């Protein structure tokens, strides 16, 4: 199969409906695999082999992926039997290998299976889904396929629970899901659905030798209004991040289900208060909750996912993994370094392949820092910090057959003032768009465009982040029934500047 950026005209002519047919081959391949249990020996302990190399930046490039993808193991349970009887395909319909094939087709280097839980689902994951993941890894070796789930987080909405790649990864997930997922117990245990249980889970994860990652899904999906939150609240994010800052590291800036409007639904499935430009209000609002968390100095990152269940051409609200949304991680092509990038904020996100690479650098007197990193500058009467933004536009057409163009790039800066007086704070009034750039403001350098800006007289700790768009909206507007392909955005994670 050709890569997504292939110049082959057959790729450009391939319709989305043909892709749906093509994906059906995954079920046949999975059934034909002779591998019943156990992954290949050479892959079993890749995480161990890479342990201790997190500071090695060699061979790191931007690698696109998706950590929120559902398979046919997002099913249903008949609780009239004891134990409950599991039925595949009730909620999501595609085999694990089909998702991997489509992820590869749309240019992803890594992907993660995140199926829903339920009563005794930990055993379904261990005994049924995991063997299929092992088969898929053999059949689609070009895509790193993480093991984990869409965790039924106590007192919260769903979260990614990403397990490091190692020989006992299935047992590690089983331990965490069976002990802490709020719906895994049968009969239901109401004591699992409390914030204290969530903190207990995060502390248990933090104490593990191989540390998982936890990222909140569709955080404002249940929010009834702007700044009025539902299941997920600022207080819970802070408490969780305080308990396990290397485990609980962020939320989806752009949720999945972005194809909703193509079937008269809402982007993201946000039926109460909408997304803005496809992004959750917690991210899209300048000076909002994300900026409030960054303004405390928290290393709290955003991602973008498909939340793929059923493709929109089959009546669903979803794109394939990588077809529309991508999370780009600066990493080597190995499991440990992908997780290291996610853990440490070497991430930018985008929709519709508006751009294919993004770099944000802050520099001062020969020192520099990139996304997720900290630049330390001396306290002087006059300290200037140089900001450089590089992005590469898409060459060719995206999955919709369009040639999107960047119309504007914004540089956003906020001060870091320390912990908020209230755990419920959801604003950072210091955060501003300090500069807006159009095509006349950037210059071409090879295949990239470069923007430079100077932050003058930096006297206090701050962070800088970048966003860009194909639209002419000064701020991303609340989403309606516009096509998601006509409303494309990208966001960087921040670079931090520390004054000492």
TrEMBL record:
InterPro entries: Pol/histidinol_Pase-like, TAT_signal. Residues 32-61 are annotated as: Disordered. It comes from the Bacteria. Residues 46-61 have a biased composition (Basic and acidic residues). This is Phosphoesterase. It comes from Streptomyces scopuliridis RB72.
């Amino acid at each position: 199969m050709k890569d997504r950026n292939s110049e082959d005209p057959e790729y450009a002519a391939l319709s989305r409906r043909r892709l749906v047919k093509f994906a059906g081959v995954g079920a046949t391949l999975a059934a034909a695999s002779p591998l019943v249990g156990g992954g290949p020996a050479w892959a079993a302990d890749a995480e161990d082999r890479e342990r201790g190399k997190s500071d090695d930046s060699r061979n790191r490039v931007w690698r696109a992926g998706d950590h929120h993808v559902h398979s046919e193991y997002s099913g249903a349970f008949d609780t009239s039997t004891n134990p409950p009887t599991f039925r595949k395909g009730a909620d999501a319909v595609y085999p694990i290998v089909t998702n991997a094939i489509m992820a590869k087709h749309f240019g992803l280097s890594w992907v993660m299976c995140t199926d829903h839980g339920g009563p005794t689902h930990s055993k379904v994951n261990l005994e049924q889904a995991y063997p299929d993941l092992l088969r898929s890894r053999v059949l689609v070796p070009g895509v790193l396929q993480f093991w984990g789930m869409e965790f039924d987080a106590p007192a919260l909405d769903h979260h990614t629970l990403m397990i490091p790649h190692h020989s006992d990864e299935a047992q590690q997930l089983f331990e965490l899901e069976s002990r802490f997922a709020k719906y895994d117990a049968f009969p239901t245990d109401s004591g699992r659905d409390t914030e204290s249980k969530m903190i207990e889970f995060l502390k248990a994860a933090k104490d593990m030798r191989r540390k998982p990652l936890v990222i909140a899904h569709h955080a404002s999906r249940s929010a009834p209004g702007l700044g009025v939150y539902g299941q997920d609240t600022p207080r819970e994010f802070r408490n969780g991040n305080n308990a396990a800052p290397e485990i609980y590291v962020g939320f989806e800036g752009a949720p999945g289900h972005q194809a909703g409007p193509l079937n008269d639904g809402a982007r993201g499935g946000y039926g109460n208060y909408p997304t803005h430009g496809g992004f959750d209000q917690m991210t899209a609002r300048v000076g909002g909750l994300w900026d409030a968390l960054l303004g405390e100095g928290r290393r709290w990152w955003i991602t973008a996912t498909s939340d793929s269940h059923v493709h929109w051409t089959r009546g669903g609200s979803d794109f394939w993994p990588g077809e529309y949304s991508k999370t780009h991680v600066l990493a080597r092509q190995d499991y440990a370094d992908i997780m290291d990038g996610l853990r440490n904020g070497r991430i930018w996100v985008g929709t519709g392949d508006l751009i294919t690479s993004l770099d944000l650098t802050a520099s001062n007197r020969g020192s520099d820092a990139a996304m997720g990193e900290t630049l330390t500058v001396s306290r002087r009467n006059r300290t200037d910090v140089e900001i450089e933004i590089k992005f590469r536009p898409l060459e060719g057409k995206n999955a919709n057959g369009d040639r999107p163009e960047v119309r504007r790039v914004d540089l956003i800066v906020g001060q870091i003032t320390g912990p908020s007086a209230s755990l419920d704070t959801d604003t950072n009034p210091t955060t501003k768009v300090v500069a807006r750039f159009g095509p006349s403001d950037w210059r071409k350098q090879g295949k990239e465009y470069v923007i430079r800006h100077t932050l003058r007289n930096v006297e206090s700790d701050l962070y800088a982040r970048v966003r860009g768009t194909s639209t002419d909206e000064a701020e991303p507007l609340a989403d309606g029934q516009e096509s998601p392909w006509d409303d494309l955005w990208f966001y960087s994670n921040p670079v931090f500047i520390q004054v000492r």
